[in-house]
Write a sequence for this structure.
């Protein structure tokens, strides 16, 4: 994290803005985490929900933000800079591991990262508060061989990875649960290839 020499005015303004913020709407649903028996809806705030929640309180208190995407050898992320009209600022960057992807995949990852960074700087929750034991963070994901198999099948069907990502509501193929691998393969195989 990087910041201006002083952040007292920014901190005061952020405190006032946070007191004026409503809870962010949660217009998205992640089916992977939905569990009706346990009362977990899988609801989460989309990027636009977070923006809407912070926009007026930030503006009313002299706060603004900018986000700059970056990509390095093995990650994709963004720098988020929170600024105050006094000239004070805080800058932080956050990224997630990412291998070679298509532009659409990078876009999905960046939206994901930007949402969490903005929610964090504003102090907003972006998904349901569930007990850590209710959702397994260590769910086994597909392995590299399975990722390669999906990519090869997509290529043979002339399909974009984006379709699979939207279908499984994940940011990258590597985030697909191992238990969903057969379903993904079956779904791709069911797509008919049009003759040229």
């Amino acid at each position: 994290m990087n910041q201006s020499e002083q952040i007292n005015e920014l901190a005061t303004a952020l405190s006032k803005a946070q007191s004026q913020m409503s809870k962010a709407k949660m217009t998205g649903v992640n089916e992977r985490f939905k569990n009706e028996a346990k009362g977990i809806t899988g609801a989460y705030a989309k990027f636009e929900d977070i923006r809407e929640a912070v926009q007026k309180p930030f503006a009313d208190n002299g706060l603004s933000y900018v986000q700059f995407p970056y990509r390095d050898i093995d990650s994709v992320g963004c720098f988020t800079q929170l600024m105050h009209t006094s000239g004070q600022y805080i800058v932080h960057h956050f990224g997630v591991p990412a291998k070679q992807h298509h532009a659409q995949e990078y876009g999905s990852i960046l939206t994901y990262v930007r949402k969490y960074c903005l929610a964090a700087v504003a102090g907003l929750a972006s998904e349901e508060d569930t007990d850590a034991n209710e959702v397994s963070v260590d769910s086994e994901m597909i392995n590299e061989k399975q990722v390669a198999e999906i990519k090869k099948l997509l290529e043979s069907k002339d399909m974009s990875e984006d379709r699979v990502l939207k279908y499984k509501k994940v940011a990258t193929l590597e985030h697909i649960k191992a238990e969903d691998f057969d379903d993904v393969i079956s779904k791709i195989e069911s797509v008919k290839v049009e003759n040229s």
